[in-house]
UniProtKB/TrEMBL annotation, chain A:
<keyword id="KW-0399">Innate immunity</keyword>
<keyword id="KW-0732">Signal</keyword>
<keyword id="KW-0391">Immunity</keyword>
<keyword id="KW-0496">Mitochondrion</keyword>
<dbReference type="GO" id="GO:0060090">
    <property type="term" value="F:molecular adaptor activity"/>
</dbReference>
<protein>
    <recommendedName>
        <fullName>Evolutionarily conserved signaling intermediate in Toll pathway, mitochondrial</fullName>
    </recommendedName>
</protein>
<dbReference type="Pfam" id="PF06239">
    <property type="entry name" value="ECSIT_N"/>
</dbReference>
<feature type="compositionally biased region" description="Low complexity">
    <location>
        <begin position="400"/>
        <end position="410"/>
    </location>
</feature>
<dbReference type="InterPro" id="IPR010418">
    <property type="entry name" value="ECSIT"/>
</dbReference>
From TrEMBL, chain B:
<protein>
    <recommendedName>
        <fullName>Complex I assembly factor ACAD9, mitochondrial</fullName>
    </recommendedName>
</protein>
<keyword id="KW-0285">Flavoprotein</keyword>
<dbReference type="Pfam" id="PF00441">
    <property type="entry name" value="Acyl-CoA_dh_1"/>
</dbReference>
<keyword id="KW-0007">Acetylation</keyword>
<dbReference type="GO" id="GO:0070991">
    <property type="term" value="F:medium-chain fatty acyl-CoA dehydrogenase activity"/>
</dbReference>
<keyword id="KW-0496">Mitochondrion</keyword>
<dbReference type="InterPro" id="IPR049448">
    <property type="entry name" value="ACAD9/ACADV-like_C"/>
</dbReference>
<dbReference type="GO" id="GO:0005743">
    <property type="term" value="C:mitochondrial inner membrane"/>
</dbReference>
<comment type="function">
    <text>As part of the MCIA complex, primarily participates in the assembly of the mitochondrial complex I and therefore plays a role in oxidative phosphorylation. This moonlighting protein also has a dehydrogenase activity toward a broad range of substrates with greater specificity for long-chain unsaturated acyl-CoAs. However, in vivo, it does not seem to play a primary role in fatty acid oxidation. In addition, the function in complex I assembly is independent of the dehydrogenase activity of the protein.</text>
</comment>
Amino acid sequence: MSWAQGILLARGLSRGWGGICSTALTGVPFSQGPPQAPRGLHCSTAAHNPDSSLVPRPPEPPRGPVKALAPHVELFRQAPDGVRDKASFVQAVQNFTQYNVHKRGHVDFIYLALRKMREYGVERDLAVYNLLLDIFPKEVFRPRNIFHSIFLHYPRQQECGIAVLEQMENHGVMPNKETEFLLIQIFGRKSHPMLKFVRMKLWFTRFKNIDPFPISRDLPQDPVDLASLALRHMEPDLSARVTVYQMPLSKDSRDATDPTEPHIIGIQSPDQQAALAHHDPARPIFVEGPFSLWLRDKCVYYHILRADLLPPEEREVEEIPEEWNLYYPMQLDLAYGRSSWDDYEFNINEVEEGPVFAICMAGAHDQATLAKWIQGLQETNPALDRIPVVFRLSGSSGELLASSSGLEEPPLTPPEGQEEEENNQQRQQQSQS
Amino acid sequence: MSGCGLFLRSAAAARSCRALVAFTASRRSLRTSPPSQAFAKELFLGKIEKKEVFPFPEVSQDELNEINQFVGPVEKFFTEEVDSQKIDREGKIPNETLEKLKSLGLFGMQVPEEYGGLGLSNTMYARLGEIISLDSSIAVTLAAHQAIGLKGIILAGSEEQKARYLPRLASGEHVAAFCLTEPASGSDAASIRTRATLSEDKKHYVLHGSKVWITNGGLASVFTVFAKTEVVDSNGSVKDKVTAFIVERDFGGVTSGKPEDKLGIRGSNTCEVHFENTRVPVGNVLGEVGGGFKVAMNILNSGRFSMGSAVAGMLKTLIEMTAEYACTRKQFNRNLSEFGLIQEKFALMAQKAYVMESMAYLTAGMLDQPGFPDCSIEAAAVKVFSSEAAWQCVSEALQILGGSGYMRDYPYERILRDSRILLIFEGTNEILRMYIALTGLQHAGRILTARVKQLKQGNVTTILETVGQRLRDSLGRTVDLGLTGKLGVVHPSMADSAHKLEQNVHYFSRTVESLLLRFGKTIVEEQLVLKRVANVLINLYGMTAVLSRASRSIRVGLQNHDHEVLLANIFCTEAYHQNLCTLSQLDKHSPENLDELIKKVSQQVLKKRAYVCAHPLDRPS
């Protein structure tokens, strides 16, 4: 049997290729809808279009006699009060099974149901997927002999089963024992849906927690909560403190014509505070932004308060004070250092960046709002009173505006330097990954 | 009882004349004799300075009689009149007890006689410490008073300052406290915030700032305070430097907070001390202006050796108490003392007490030698060893006692709580390990500089020589540093242990050399390596101390010297294997060395600031 397994595996690996061949050779597309890109192990179109990877789109009308679809669509229209929830979806599926004892057209119905799942908000419900798989007639598609299992036995049905699993995968639904049981009952152990299932079981657990900076699936709706979540997400220092500088006005007044008080939320760590306190007041610091940050499907914008990197000649060399540690010497008075055999430092070419002193998220990206943020920061950072702050907002008219506190002649607007852009990109990557 | 105190005084006075004579004699020998090499530093180079540690330091018969005259009444007082449980419960030493301690002269044990103290040598101070430690609150109060509080005046004070303060401090009329720690500054002198500024008329310093965790802070009327002052450098720039001051409470502006509630040593007074606009006369600067750092270091380094004898004293009583219990408590018709697992614990306690006692008195004897030898590494080793042994032994004693060890009706839980502080104060053990290792490596590094340079430059002869040495070492050659043999200093009954010590010392020096070669001055950052170096050194010092002491015991024929030989051999064998293991971990690419993994784990934990693993009941989906 092992050679059969080997062949099966080989076929599974080259499934994309085989799919094309069979399509080309037979001329009968075994999946309705537009021909799909070959899907081998290495190319997955699913990432780009998660909802409709294997599920064919509704066919164009002149395509041929596909009357079977129409009644199924009716099933989903039947919801009496127009409520689209799990109960009505389950009802529709049950109606299909009751109405159609011979399960005629069940493949089309499953494809349709898969497309409809999102509308009913059940796309992450394992029980519903199992219910859909349950529609397949049992035992019928199981390979009876070795040749069945070598060749694609009931290809259309197997494709459909894979489509169900594929949609589960795209929504991050982990199949369970019941799924396995159903698949074995329907397609048998040596089938492509089972192969897919086993692979899901293997890789899901490994990839699920691969993100070192996970975000919860349900993001808070309140912009203040969302902003503080995003700020925490970006800030690596756990002792950093989130401050709400301004709460948005209450709901009824927000309906008024001008929302003069958008929310302003900032984050700053003690280290950043210390760095700001040591900043040379002769050098301006900049408010830059807005930069975008994606949290799942939401995009938020933030601004940073940063300074340029000190030129090398002005940097203070940090020297070890002579009388520092009361108990033991902090450095040895020896003429030789680490031998090269024990030097494990790699030569990493690091791009040095200017310090970032604080990050904020505001409801509006104009200078007036951000000036309020700076005012709020001044309470905890007295040094900020003496440092000129320059607003470099990419959304503004392009003119540089100096804040009231400083700088008579602001420097010309630098087009966003490459270094800064890198900086931002890194920041975003960090936050998104 | 007061007659007894008087007697002590007169004895001290009698001693003073003799001591004076001895002092002039010793001074002469100081000039002629070559500077003594510290024993521990030479261990890093693979040498055993036999002169320093063999034979075990002895005191003369007269001196011994004198010590016993001191010890008798003090011991009587501590066993009969001090109620440690009451002191612990009430969190205060009763005034009568303090008065009695003063009348016994215990507030000025190391103050020279001419200033009214007892003028005890380090050895005698260690001996008295054994008894004083029977109550740890009193021991800590006395130590804070004289081991650090007034030590600065003895070490760095001018004649004027000594005459002014020492008599009243020695009599206990004034209590001293040592004010160094601040909220932001533990061992980091650079972050001291307390500031002293010179007044307009240049006659006073005005002191501002607060100090925390000051032992005796509420009782003291004389403080040794460390504060930042502005000092003009030799090249004209103004710098902040630490200066030590003698501050009296009567100078004004000194307030102390309420006593802290502590885990152990609850009878000692620990509180915050605040200085606000305290005007300190210029004459009260201790040492030089800007020289406070050195003063603080000297004070801290000078007092550590006494912990060894104090803990040993405490352990001896603990052994008595637990042995009493183990020999009377019956289970399954057998005394607890008949069970092997219980017997093992007694052996452990006896061994640790023996080792730390030997180390402490050896160090005290070295310190008492003329020429003010630098024994700071040895003293730190004594402190680390004795504090850790104390914690281990007390914990084992509680294990022997079972449930009654845990009950507050018995003294054992108090001893456990009290002994925990030993690992923390006077420099935490971690910090002292760094001190031991780095000071020794600095010494070895300087001497080995030429050799290391030649090796690095690829000098063929040196490399061949080194390779040859290594080859001989790996073939398992016998190391002979002259401890045994015909003219050996170690008694033949411990020849095996002496060989073990020699072998350890030899391989230790090899390891030190290769560590210096590998890391150079960046070894400061390799704390896990330094910890191992310090551990080996502490063991080596302990082995030397027990060998020296047991050899002497045999030769002079002390009672039960065969028991001492047993203990010495046990300790040497154990320490030998520990050392071998540690030294092999210090090899490059050693499979026993898990430092990289350990660092990784701690980095991940600290990055999250939490326990990282998922719950064992979690499921992937």
